[in-house]
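pinging the channel bc i need a second pair of eyes. not urgent but kinda urgent?? the chain im working w is below, pasted from the shared doc
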Amino acid sequence: MAPLIIANCIYLWCIVTIVIKRYKGTGEIMTNQEWRLFYQTTIPCSFKLFTQFYWYFYCATTKAGQAIQLLLLVVDNGYHPFLYLTINR
């Protein structure tokens, strides 16, 4: 359980660091390329955090809950190429 907590803390730290560095800057509006990089970093980190907490700390007792857990597991292993193609067109 300790490696999971450490990994999730690192994910949170990355997201917070990106947001703080962005808002500590000159106050300029972000370009489209910066937004794309921001999304490509925060979406996988946020999704990974959500799926990890859902997978390890929620015990699904119904068939619908188990189906959602299985769906999240499948999506978790394959959303990176989809995210790349959607954002970078």
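so The CA atoms of residues 58 and 85 lie 31 Å apart. and Residues 32-57 form the longest helix (26 residues). — does that match what u expected or am i reading it wrong
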